[in-house]
Amino acid sequence: xxxxxxxxxxxxRGYSVRFDPRALAVAVGLVVALAVVSVFSLGTGxxxxxxxxxxxxxxxxxxxxxxxxxxxxxxxxxxxAVLVGGALGASGAILQRLSGNPLGSPDIIGFTxxxxxxxxxMITVVHGSMMAIAGGAxxxxxxxxxxxxxxxxxxxxxxSRFVLVGIGVGAMLLSANSYLITRASWQDALAAQAWLxxxxxxxxxxxxxxxxxxxxxxFPIAGYFARKLALLDLGDDxxxxxxxxxxxxxxxxxxxxxxxxxxxxxxxxxIWFVALAAPQLAHxxxxxxxxxxxxxxxxxxxxxxxxxxxxxxxxxxxxxxxGTATGVLGGLYLIWFLATRRRExxx
Amino acid sequence: MSRLHGENLTLGYDQRVVAxxxxxxxxxxxxxxxxxxxxxxKSTLLKAMARMIKPRAGAVYLDGAEIATYKAREVAxxxxxxxxxxxxxxxxxxxxxxxxxxYPHQRLLRQWSREDETIVTDAMAATGVxxxxxxxxxxxxxxxxQRVWLAVVLAQQTPILLLDEPTTYLDIAHQLEVLDLCADxxxxxxxxxxAVLHDLNQAFRYATHVVVLxxxxxxxxxxxxxxxxTAELIEDVFGLGCRVIDDPETGTPMIVPTARRGAAxxx
Amino acid sequence: MITRTxxxxxxxxxxxxxxxxxxWLGTKDISFLETWRVLWxxxxxxxxxxxHDYRVPRTILGLLVGAALxxxxxxxxxxxxxxxxxxxxxxVSLGASSGVVVAIAFVGVSGVLGYVWFAFVGAAIAAxxxxxxxxxxxxxxxxxxxxxxGAAVTAVLYAFNTAVLLVDPRAFNQFRFWNAGSLAGxxxxxxxxxxxxLAVGIALALALAxxxxxxxxxxxxxxxxxxxxxxxRIAGAVAVTLLCGAATAAAGPxxxxxxxxxxxxxxxxxxxxxxxLPYTLVLSPILLIGSDTLGRVIGSPGExxxxxxxxFVGAPVFLALCRRRKLSAL
Lengths: 347, 267, 330
Hints:
The complex is a heterotrimer. Chain A is mainly alpha-helical. Chain A contains 15 helices and 2 strands. A two-stranded antiparallel ribbon of chain A has the order 1-2. The radius of gyration of chain A is 21 Å and the shape is globular. Chain A starts with 7 loop residues before the first strand and ends with a helix. Chain B is α/β, with parallel strands linked by helices. Chain B has helices at 42-49, 72-78, 94-100, 114-126, 142-155, 172-186, 200-206, 225-228, 231-238; strands at residues 4-13, 16-26, 31-35, 57-62, 65-66, 79-82, 160-164, 192-196, 209-214, 218-223, 242-246, 253-257. A 6-stranded mixed beta sheet of chain B has the order 6-7-8-3-9-10, with helices on both faces. In chain B, helix 4 runs antiparallel to helix 5. In chain C, 77% of the residues lie in helices and 0% in strands. Chain C starts with a helix and ends in a 7-residue tail after the last helix. Chains A and C meet through helix 4, helix 7, helix 8 and helix 15 of A and helix 5, helix 6, helix 7 and helix 14 of C.
């Protein structure tokens, strides 16, 4: 037990680990909430199932129909929502910490516009399949990140400007997207416009594997470097003086953040504002130095799962893309954010 | 023997060259002050010795090997740097901030040992901020904050401490507090302290070894204050006419600038 | 030594050249002499119709829209003391376009004359929200924060537009061409409808030159000098809304003109707004008409909309600005 620093320490033999009990409690709370939402997602809808039946089907013990509905339709959709939401939440948390700005999120800085450009090219020019479109989104997002990184950090660039550079590049891409939509045929344009709103409709095990593998690889890397964030917070000079490989850490964090966002966008199309709102909401609950990566991930997963549940059950006939719900929530979030910041500013 | 020295250093930023062919050796166990007029490269030299910037030519040597060959953590265990600009994250407590100074000694599974705790407590006691441990850094005065940052560097437990203008923005009482602390630290050769200072009299009073830099980054003089400080030197390097007397309190050299003609006998 | 007045005259002459080139070049090859003749002696021939019914109104519109965008950018940069301010980047353009979306989808309006009022309201609301978002909170407002706030509002409005248009395909079709930012297909009606707003906006902007010079010294200093900071800001905001709203209603969202040109003007004449504003007034149409012409030339037989060309021309300028070590306020 330490009375000196915040948080708790667990010691065993020569090893010791620090953790923040409040953040842990929040994370557990979010997981519980997610479990509840999951039960509802799997059990309600056109074909209702009791929680017991749901569990039976998960294990493979239920009726053939129930098994089919749960394992082939609802479960992959739910898992996609959870994993994509988690990836977006983590991505947003990292980028917001790095940029030192709560608005520094991949869908605002321009990485997501790049994914959109890649996908739109696939839709309007190449007329590719769903796989091709996803591939285009992935390549587009990553290529945009490389461009932004090269411009911000290349010779003469200043590290703190990468947000601005991202916005500049994003503006160009927004324009390019408009161009592609005007050039396209009527149907292609509609398809493109539709893609611009991420959706979980028709998402199956393919997407789950895609995003699952991405998370399995990227989360540990991000987690390792995220420990250095506490020191990057002290300013580049001090961090270097303490032995942190600042440039390397920043590079790794940006790469993982962008890659997570790009994979998420490839799986479902752009789902706006989860990456923006989840970290801040998690931060409000857990306090601490800044949005934590894991709590933001759980919050993102919860937000997306909840939004998807809402969109499916409240509008059962229209198959509304979940991106519309998150878009509305995003707008509301910004208003709330604005209102609370003003109050803080006066305090 | 010096643990830290730079040889034939050419230093610069972007297009500007600040110093050419500069050779400086820091005596081990000394309190070295680096002084000079504006834009003579004092901060640049310190940063180069702390491995913050790469010299264009020449090299800095730490414990016999080129500093560039060490791993970052290794350097952080031997050299502590207090930069001019450090940012304290909003809402952080004093103890938590000082605790971050332990980073070079910590590992993935050794995040906060009992030793860490003792060292941090001692560092805060040494800088007189122990009773502020639970307070938020944002709420402290400038002088208190600077002492907290000093505690961070102390917690790093390095034999060599580099301080970049540690007294700027502090009022006179706090400036002397910080300098007294540096003198305590170096006493008996416990630490080697190197500080960039802009107040000459403070530098001459506290330092055991002074490096005077000229614009263009050349060494104008180097040695104990009593040995090198003369009116000619100050006139030459700073363009200031002055008298050198013995400080009535400590006996070290003290600069008294000559008055303007006609302002002499004001009653 | 070229005086600033001479420089301005040179710029005006250059503008004249660019205007003529804009009228001369196009999808159909019409020789320069023929263009010149027909310009002054309309004779009802097919060439004459092309020139007088398409190219001339288009170029005049480019003149007005360019001037409006450039001036609103210069005003925004001076008002916020932020070198990165631009109606496109700070969400004002997108606010205007959201107003237009509302007009098309919910009110059933069509045609520029109908859009204008909605564009004004949208631009004004967006500007206020971005300003509040970017300057709230305890930390100092830096150039980055305002731009980031603009980007956030842009994202929200982009999502809003996309959502509305997804549900209304007819509106989508009407909107998607307008949205790329173009001078095509606008005739004299548009010009005459917007002229009063643009005239008032331009006059207001030029009248603010001196107060803006004082404002540049910082808030406390301005007040100490007796300037009415609040009134200047409000007048400036009104001018920006008029100029940007009208320009966007007419031509769709066009970005980067307002960002790049004032910087060029300042490079030439220094920070005195009494010179920066007139230079911006003349130089912006050069950029806009030039971009429009370029778009028509490279996109032949169709065209690359001017909004897209200015983005690709202007964004590198923005990026170059970003990379400057010291991003000081104005």
